[in-house]
Design a protein that fits this description.
Number of strands: 0
CATH topology of the largest domain: 434 Repressor (Amino-terminal Domain)
Mean pLDDT: 82
Distance between the termini: 37 Å
Largest sheet: none
CATH superfamily of the largest domain: lambda repressor-like DNA-binding domains
Number of domains: 2
Helix content: 55-70%
Length: 221
């Protein structure tokens, strides 16, 4: 994240962090080592807080820093959705917020404790739903959304599903097939446990085949 971001986004983050502490601005300033006047300017959007200040306020609020990053992305998506309205009475399309919601929800679920072992059919169903949501985005956006979502970023079922999409794309678009195979393999590399070897081996074979089809013979070799 940049040292300073959009003050209109970060002011809402600072307001929420203060609310979570149940402190006054002065008390939050003492707890985080930040001048009360600066906190006031942050909350008015007059000044964007640097990352170091955000980290100190998050620590005072006992909010893990990765969650702050997700909160920032969510607020950015929310404000972008609001800005897209054509008139005061037009509703915001919920689909605009889906990527941010998908990023935050699994993180919060995982943070409650050790993740339970889920039945394979449940994992496949979740992978199918995740891929359906990701499919509308370009490859760079897909990669970013997956990286933002801890469970998806190491899901063997999602890696296999994207391999399937890569195979389906091979005949019509070799470049897209290769991009999908690379994305699947990047997930497979994070898979842990007894499934890791099988999933990585499968995704590696798909990647090598996609490279051959795309003409990257050196990479395939």
């Amino acid at each position: 994240m940049a040292k300073r971001g959009d003050p209109n986004v970060l002011r809402l983050v600072v307001i929420l962090l203060q609310a979570l502490t149940r402190m006054t601005q002065k008390e939050l300033g003492r707890a985080s080592g930040i001048d009360q006047g600066d906190i006031s300017r942050y909350q008015k959007g007059e000044l964007a807080p640097p990352e170091a200040s955000l980290r100190r306020m998050a620590k005072a609020a006992k909010v893990p820093w990765p969650l702050v990053g997700l909160l920032i992305r969510f607020i950015e998506a929310f404000l972008a959705a609001v800005a897209r309205r054509r008139s005061p009475i037009q509703a915001v399309d919920p689909k605009v917020l889906e990527p941010a919601l998908q990023a935050v929800t699994p993180y919060l679920l995982e943070d409650t404790g050790a993740e339970r072992k889920r039945p394979p059919e449940e994992e496949r169903r979740e992978a199918e739903e995740t891929w359906t949501s990701l499919e509308r985005h370009d490859i760079s956006r897909r990669r970013r959304l997956i990286e933002m979502t801890p469970r998806s970023s190491k899901s063997p079922a999602l890696a296999m599903r994207i391999c399937e999409a890569s195979a389906q794309a091979a005949d019509r678009n070799a470049g897209e097939s290769l991009e999908l195979a690379e994305l699947a393999f990047s997930i497979a590399e994070r898979v842990q446990g007894e499934e890791s070897g099988r999933v990585q081996g499968y995704c590696r074979e798909r990647l090598l085949h996609a490279r051959q089809v795309a003409g990257e013979l050196g990479g395939a070799g």
